[in-house]
Automatic annotation (TrEMBL):
Residue stretches spanning the membrane: 49-71
Listed name of the protein: DUF2500 domain-containing protein
UniProt entry tagged with the keyword Transmembrane: yes
The keyword Transmembrane is annotated on this UniProt entry: yes
Keyword entries, A-Z: Membrane, Transmembrane, Transmembrane helix
Pfam families: DUF2500 (PF10694)
Source taxon at top rank: Bacteria
Lineage start: Bacteria, Bacillati, Bacillota, Bacilli, Bacillales
Amino acid sequence: MALTSVSSSMGRLSVDGFGVFDDMNGVPGFEGNQGGFFSGFNEFASMNAFASIFIGGIFLIIAGVIVYVIISGVRTWSSNNAAALLTLHSTVVAKRTEVSGGSGDSSATTRYYVTFEFDNGERTELIVGGNHYGMMVENDRGMLTYQGTRFKHFERDVQPQSGVSKGQFYT
């Protein structure tokens, strides 16, 4: 037969199914978090509420940043698609790269930028692929095809080199 209650000088104490006393109100230091040794644990309830609000706030900030980045990307993509496809004579006036990442074991990402100057003096900087970037040199002239901020193609003007006749190459 299992023991389910014990009578003592402090009153009747019940035992749960695991053999642990349920009612510890009569034991010094276990006054139901109203005083004694464990009285400071009531502060954890307010800290728990603060932690929940803080973590929820961080989550909302991260979610907001993600939504902003998505909306910004869709807006740029949409405006590029709505822009006219232009082919204009231009000159390569500057080239630059931007490298990000690459610390530790992670790989680096390189973005290639080329600044073109049109015959009317206006300039635009476009992100180009590495294969196009490598084929352009500053002061190259040619026909630039682009749509909004999206680079499409650059066809370099072929300039005959002075002192070289047709079919001859430098050795």
